[in-house]
């Protein structure tokens, strides 16, 4: 049975991915900083309370995976936070650092320790969660954008380094994904721009060719494909799941 680790997998997109992988027959292990959500995971999904941006906890997590599973087939480096919404001249440095720590440091640490399990096996798949913000930029979201661009650069480098060892790496770039997280993003952006949340939401949808927001199930489906043998020659790619964004700030 194949194994998958999903960071920040006890809620939102991560939980939908966890359920999708479990449904496909994987052994699933997720992490989250929210102990209550970890405790409420569905039967069959293993959970650990862990901050993806802190190395001691991540190292201990992978040591536990190695001891219990003997290796890891798939990593989904999904941990992320939205970060502050503000003009660059008003940006708080501590909030900037926190956003980069969770989104980018967390991805690096996951890749660092997953590589140590996958290289001896001569195979593995790493899936990094970026964003369309990592492809285009986004006004008033500088820390998040910078982190998600960084995730793509990290992924491409990892793909080059680990490809000779049979390990593939790709990044998923979701657009605006329906759920509580995008609701918070929209509310913060509406406050900065002096708009209503509904107007911001409609703007997000109108800036895509398909005229709607993405569902978390769409992201999970891409993750399952990238983990599959059907994607055996797909590596080093940043794949948008967004309905084709053509206006990032409508």
How do the helices and strands line up, and which of them pair or pack?
Layout: E1 3-6, H1 12-23, E2 27-32, H2 35-39, E3 45-49, H3 55-69, E4 74-77, H4 93-121, E5 124-129, H5 133-136, H6 142-162, E6 167-174, H7 180-193, H8 197-206, H9 216-227, E7 238-241
Parallel strand pairs: 1-2, 1-4, 2-3, 4-5, 5-6, 6-7
Helix pairs in contact: 1-9, 3-4, 4-6, 7-8
Keywords, separated by commas or semicolons:
7-stranded parallel beta sheet; 250 residues; 9 helices
In short:
Helix content is 49%, strand content 15%. The chain has 250 residues and is of the alpha/beta class.
> If helices are DSSP runs of H or I spanning 4 or more residues, what is the number of helices?
9
Low-confidence stretches: none
Computed Rg: 17 Å
Spatial strand arrangement across the major sheet: 3-2-1-4-5-6-7
Question: End-to-end span in angstroms?
Answer: 46 Å
Order of H and E elements: EHEHEHEHEHHEHHHE
Largest sheet properties:
7 strands, parallel
Structural category is alpha/beta
Share of helical residues? 40-55%
* Shape designation: globular
Give the oligomeric state: single chain
Total beta strands? 7
- Averaging pLDDT over every residue, what do you get? 97
Beta-sheet strand percentage?
5-15%
Characterise this structure.
The protein has a 7-stranded parallel beta sheet with strand order 3-2-1-4-5-6-7, sandwiched between helices. The chain starts with a strand and ends in a 9-residue tail after the last strand. The chain is built from 9 helices and 7 strands; from the N terminus they run βαβαβαβαβααβαααβ. It is α/β, with parallel strands linked by helices and 250 residues long. Helix content is 49%, strand content 15%. α4 packs parallel to α6.
């Amino acid at each position: 049975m194949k194994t998958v680790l999903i960071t920040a997998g006890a809620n939102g997109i991560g939980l939908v991915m966890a359920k999708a992988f479990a449904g496909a027959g994987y052994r699933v292990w997720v992490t989250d900083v929210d102990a209550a959500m970890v405790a409420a995971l569905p039967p069959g999904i293993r959970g650990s309370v862990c901050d993806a941006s802190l190395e001691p906890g991540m190292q201990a997590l992978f040591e536990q995976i190695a001891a219990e599973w003997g290796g890891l087939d798939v990593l989904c480096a999904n941990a992320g936070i939205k970060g502050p919404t503000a003009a660059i001249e008003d940006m708080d440095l501590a909030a900037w650092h926190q956003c980069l720590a969770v989104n980018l440091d967390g991805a690096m640490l996951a890749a660092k320790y997953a590589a140590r399990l996958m290289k001896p096996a001569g195979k593995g798949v790493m899936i990094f969660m970026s964003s369309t913000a990592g492809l285009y930029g986004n006004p008033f979201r500088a820390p998040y954008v910078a982190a998600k661009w960084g995730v793509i650069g990290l992924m491409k480098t990892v793909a080059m380094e680990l490809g000779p060892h049979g390990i593939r790496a790709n990044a998923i770039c979701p657009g605006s994904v329906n759920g509580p997280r995008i609701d918070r993003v929209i509310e913060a952006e509406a406050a900065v721009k002096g708009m209503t949340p509904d107007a911001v939401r409609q703007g997000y949808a109108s800036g895509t060719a398909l005229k709607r927001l993405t569902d978390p199930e769409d992201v999970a489906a891409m993750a399952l494909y990238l983990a599959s043998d059907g994607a055996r020659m797909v590596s080093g790619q940043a794949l948008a799941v967004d309905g084709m964004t053509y206006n990032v700030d409508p």
